[in-house]
Amino acid sequence: MGMSDCWCSPPEVATPLVDLFGGPVGMDPCSNERSIIQAFVALTHGGLVLPWCTDGVPRTAYENFPYSQGQVWTDKALHELATGNVAELVRLSMMATSSQWWADACLKAERNPRILGLKRLKFISPAPESRRAGGARRMTCRFEPALMYFGPRPEVFTKTFAHLTRWSTWGR
Predict the structure, then answer these.
(1) What are the backbone angles phi and psi of residue 49, rounded to the nearest 5°?
(2) Is the per-residue pLDDT at 49 higher than 70?
(3) This model's pTM is above 0.90
(4) CATH code given to domain 3-164
């Protein structure tokens, strides 16, 4: 997996996550050293094998997974939701409606996700050498991004991220 597969979420997503969850997200299983996501637990490795909750209290979670590994991360996310380890999950992904992992995320979950089609985002490069005066290098993604929300507050999610939407929401 190359660095081009692991770009960091931009502030336009990171800041509203804090608003949505009323503080840092409980678990970021796909983190890296340069991530700006505020999380109580940020895994830089092991997110696919470790449970996303170990204290019996369901967590909130956020994923910006390596997009070349959509199927394995979707399988893991659906498992964590089904076992009750995660109460609310936000996923930032490419809009990949023809992929199996996208279909699985939309159809295999206990409840359909709320999906927001987003404007093109400028992701933050995770490479340390990409630093420049004034902050990290940002590059516009080459695909249509989407945010998926699994949880009991779809209206709050939609309102929180409305500033990024390109088209209306889908799902419950």
Answers:
(1) -115, -30
(2) yes
(3) no
(4) 3.40.50
